[in-house]
């Protein structure tokens, strides 16, 4: 049955039963430092100067990445044309979304205007590019504590499920177009680092970031009937009492002064869409999974080394429920973490876990490793060689 479903989506004409979920492989070892067929390249660093006017902050980066951004936006438009052949969806993007820009909070709206100016991409398409991640991101994030009490926060950013399958190259179209846009950003004010992030050029929200010596933060999508589509529609219709997820994470990384304050903001702020926030602090025991509905924090899970919970790990399913068996990245990831043991946990072994299929999959664009005590963030473009499940 599953093979037939995949065929309907144009993913495969045939799938060996050996690779039908819940397919897993033996836990990888020796994958760090990255090399070989799963390593897609290093990630370039750019500085975002917060002292500049918002419309000027992204000019240098977007000038470098202009062509890649144009290609990515065109891929999104091609998908829109395929879904709505009449062209009305593209008309909405070009005519209605620009009208939405001034309803978005400052400084994000001004930054998007600056990106449109620097790239030549129409403003509506820049808005679409920034909205896109509110509803299509699937990920694996974890925070682990080593025997000395140091915290390691890591994630795979997976994106683009069912957004165009390239039969020739056996890959999803959108993730492959996104990889050239992956950048590391150093946000600076008064010539000092405020926070660092792994991001997509042209995207002003944050999915992955570190405030050095203070806290680390990643965001994963949470599937829900009361999801991002409804929140975005309500926003367009004038109900704007919720916060965009990635704008909230950007604001927290930029303005929160402690793990405790970040945790409160992520737990209590009303959202446009459900989400998982994975938060790490700078002291032993400071890590949590914040499972959010649009209005409430549900069943929070904290690191508790004394009770044997030396790591927390989140994919895209509530931690108190079983994940969908077709998309169970949690079980193999936890298996590899437990097999590693706390005594051997390190940046190197965490990277091994995130390099094990299906934690690493066809949707994985990048892996980020963060060490709060060192203020360190490093990222790598990822490739999942065949055989590899599409998620």
UniProtKB/TrEMBL annotation:
<feature type="active site" description="Nucleophile">
    <location>
        <position position="139"/>
    </location>
</feature>
<keyword id="KW-0378">Hydrolase</keyword>
<feature type="signal peptide">
    <location>
        <begin position="1"/>
        <end position="17"/>
    </location>
</feature>
<dbReference type="Pfam" id="PF15508">
    <property type="entry name" value="NAAA-beta"/>
</dbReference>
<dbReference type="GO" id="GO:0005576">
    <property type="term" value="C:extracellular region"/>
</dbReference>
<dbReference type="Pfam" id="PF02275">
    <property type="entry name" value="CBAH"/>
</dbReference>
<dbReference type="GO" id="GO:0016020">
    <property type="term" value="C:membrane"/>
</dbReference>
<dbReference type="InterPro" id="IPR029130">
    <property type="entry name" value="Acid_ceramidase_N"/>
</dbReference>
<dbReference type="InterPro" id="IPR016699">
    <property type="entry name" value="Acid_ceramidase-like"/>
</dbReference>
<dbReference type="GO" id="GO:0006665">
    <property type="term" value="P:sphingolipid metabolic process"/>
</dbReference>
<dbReference type="GO" id="GO:0005764">
    <property type="term" value="C:lysosome"/>
</dbReference>
<dbReference type="GO" id="GO:0006631">
    <property type="term" value="P:fatty acid metabolic process"/>
</dbReference>
<keyword id="KW-1015">Disulfide bond</keyword>
<keyword id="KW-0325">Glycoprotein</keyword>
<comment type="pathway">
    <text>Lipid metabolism; sphingolipid metabolism.</text>
</comment>
<dbReference type="InterPro" id="IPR029132">
    <property type="entry name" value="CBAH/NAAA_C"/>
</dbReference>
<dbReference type="GO" id="GO:0017040">
    <property type="term" value="F:N-acylsphingosine amidohydrolase activity"/>
</dbReference>
<dbReference type="GO" id="GO:0017064">
    <property type="term" value="F:fatty acid amide hydrolase activity"/>
</dbReference>
<keyword id="KW-0732">Signal</keyword>
<keyword id="KW-0443">Lipid metabolism</keyword>
<keyword id="KW-0746">Sphingolipid metabolism</keyword>
<feature type="domain" description="Acid ceramidase N-terminal">
    <location>
        <begin position="42"/>
        <end position="103"/>
    </location>
</feature>
<keyword id="KW-0458">Lysosome</keyword>
<feature type="domain" description="Choloylglycine hydrolase/NAAA C-terminal">
    <location>
        <begin position="139"/>
        <end position="376"/>
    </location>
</feature>
<comment type="similarity">
    <text>Belongs to the acid ceramidase family.</text>
</comment>
<keyword id="KW-0964">Secreted</keyword>
<comment type="pathway">
    <text>Sphingolipid metabolism.</text>
</comment>
<protein>
    <recommendedName>
        <fullName>Acid ceramidase</fullName>
        <ecNumber>3.5.1.23</ecNumber>
    </recommendedName>
</protein>
């Amino acid at each position: 049955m599953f093979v037939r479903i995949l065929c309907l989506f144009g993913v495969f004409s045939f799938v060996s039963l050996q690779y039908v979920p819940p397919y897993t492989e033996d836990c990888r070892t020796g994958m760090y430092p990255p090399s070989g067929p799963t390593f897609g390249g290093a990630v370039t660093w750019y500085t975002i100067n917060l002292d500049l006017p918002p419309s000027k902050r992204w000019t240098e980066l977007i000038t470098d990445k202009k062509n890649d951004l144009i290609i990515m936006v065109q891929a999104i438009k091609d998908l829109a044309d395929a879904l709505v052949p009449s062209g009305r969806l593209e008309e909405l993007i070009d005519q209605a979304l620009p009208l939405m820009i001034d309803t978005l909070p400052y400084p994000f709206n001004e930054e998007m205007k600056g990106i449109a100016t620097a790239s030549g991409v129409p403003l509506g398409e820049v808005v679409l590019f920034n909205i896109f991640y509110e509803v299509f991101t699937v990920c694996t994030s974890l925070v682990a504590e080593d025997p000395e009490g140091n915290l390691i926060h890591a994630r795979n950013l997976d994106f683009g499920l069912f957004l165009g399958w390239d039969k020739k190259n056996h890959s999803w179209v959108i993730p492959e177009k996104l990889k050239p846009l992956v950048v590391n950003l150093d946000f600076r004010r008064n010539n000092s680092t405020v926070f660092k992030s792994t991001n997509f050029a042209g995207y002003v929200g944050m999915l992955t970031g570190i405030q050095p010596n203070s806290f680390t933060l990643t965001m994963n999508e949470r599937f829900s009937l009361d999801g991002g589509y409804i929140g975005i529609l309500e926003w367009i219709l004038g109900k704007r009492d919720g916060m965009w997820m990635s704008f909230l994470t950007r604001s927290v990384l930029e303005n929160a002064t402690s793990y405790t304050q970040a945790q409160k903001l992520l737990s209590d702020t009303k959202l446009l869409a459900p989400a998982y926030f994975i938060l790490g602090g700078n002291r032993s025991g400071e890590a949590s999974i914040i499972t959010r509905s649009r209005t409430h924090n549900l069943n929070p899970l904290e690191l508790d080394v004394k009770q044997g919970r030396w790591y927390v790990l989140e994919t895209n399913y509530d931690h108190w429920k079983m994940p969908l068996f077709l998309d169970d990245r949690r079980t193999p990831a936890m298996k590899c973490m437990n097999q590693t043991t706390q005594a051997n946990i390190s940046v190197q072994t965490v990277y091994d876990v995130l390099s094990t299929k299906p934690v690493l999959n066809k949707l994985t664009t990048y892996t980020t490793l963060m060490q709060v005590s060192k203020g360190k963030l490093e990222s790598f473009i990822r490739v999942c060689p065949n055989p590899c499940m599409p998620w």
